[in-house]
Write a structure and sequence with these properties.
This protein is an alpha/beta fold. It has ten helices and 17 strands. The strands form five sheets. The chain has an eight-stranded parallel sheet, sandwiched between helices. Strands 7-6-8 form a three-stranded antiparallel sheet, with no helix packed on it. It is globular.
Length: 384
Amino acid sequence: MRVLVTGGAGFIGSHVVERLLVAGHDVRVLDALLPDVHPVPPEFPEAAEVVTADVGDAAAVADALSGVDAVCHQAAMVGLGIDLHDLPAYVRTNDLGTAVVLAEMARARVTRLVLASSMVVYGEGRYRCVVHGPVSPAPRLLEDLASGRFEPLCPACGASLTPELVTEDAPLDPRSVYAATKVAQEYLAASWARACGGTVAALRYHNVYGARMPRDTPYAGVASLFRSALARGKAPTVFEDGAQRRDFIAVRDVAAANLAALSAVDTGVIPAGALRAFNVGSGNPRTVGEMAAALADAFGGKAPIITGEYRLGDVRHIMASSARAAEELGWSAAEPFATGMAEFAAAPLRESVQTAVSVRPAGAPRWRDRRPAQRIGRVRRPLP
């Protein structure tokens, strides 16, 4: 099968490309190679064809789809960002870019899609009140966060809540600009599938970590921020009280989930005209504080510092049930947490605009360059 991987030079996308090639698929990469994101141009596997263009460029997308059987859509602007000045960039890259890809897929009659979604679509995740059963807490108030009251309470009685594993049938409740764009991507893909008889596997990634995460950028995940701090000889700084729970999953497991999902859209496990969502998590939640401590210990660096600081767009607990992926895709995470942290502690990170020297490696493989990459966002300093 020939597969187009958008964002195939990125952190997760590059691992997906490698996994598909090992499985014997032909792979074409579409990536803008923005200098803000890739100040040092990446090296691609020799077997991969590469188109340097933006997903918002309809002509380039149409060209890249020629002869393609399926698409793994990984291209996205990720993270909470800095402030609302990032909003147009998120919408342009994530939503308009996805709309262009879907429109050109319809034109090219490519009907199989694996969509990189995110656990952020759930908002606060799943909670249970001893009195009212399953509940959806309201967004946390600024005054509560400022006072160190981080745990959400029952919206009906104000009682403490017990966080539970979130399943794919949980209501969507985006609480940041990034989250809203990921929900929009799913809705756009579902509409496309119904209109053209397409098949979509939407993979809701939980907290992914591993080699090639971007270094020293506020647009990266918390694992990258901690690893970047350790590389600078600094202690990881943990927001709130460090007790917020997440599901940390190794990027190799995520790449394997993409391969499994591709098989599902190819073999009829997901019916034509439908989108099917799948959580992609380890199934072994940890607190952010535990993860920071494990990473610091494996790195041999300074112990984490609990700051009590907060970000309004963050959620308290979000933990995955990946039972659906196990039952329907035959996929489950294989990387043990301790092993993954040890590898991540030693793994190289992708250089940032602050640290990189932009030198193009000689002989870097290219299929064809459609046009020079355009800048989408502005480089800003990380959050304190």
